[in-house]
Structures are given as structure tokens and as C-alpha cells.
Amino acid sequence: MATRSLTRVLSMRERVEDTLSAHRNELVCLLS
């Protein structure tokens, strides 16, 4: 059970990092 919640947290963090990197790319395009 702990493993399942840990996997969920890791996948959530991965998704957040993907979103942040995508927004960072958009910001770089806008600012440059």
C-alpha cells in the first residue's frame, strides 16, 4: 500500500515537472 501511494506521488511530481518545463519553454520564447 505504501508502495502504491509512493508511486502515485512520484508520477504526480513527474507530471508537475513536465508542466513546469513546458511553461518555462513558453516563457523563454515569449521573453526572447
TrEMBL record:
Domain of life: Eukaryota
UniProt protein name: Sucrose synthase
Source organism: Nymphaea colorata (pocket water lily)
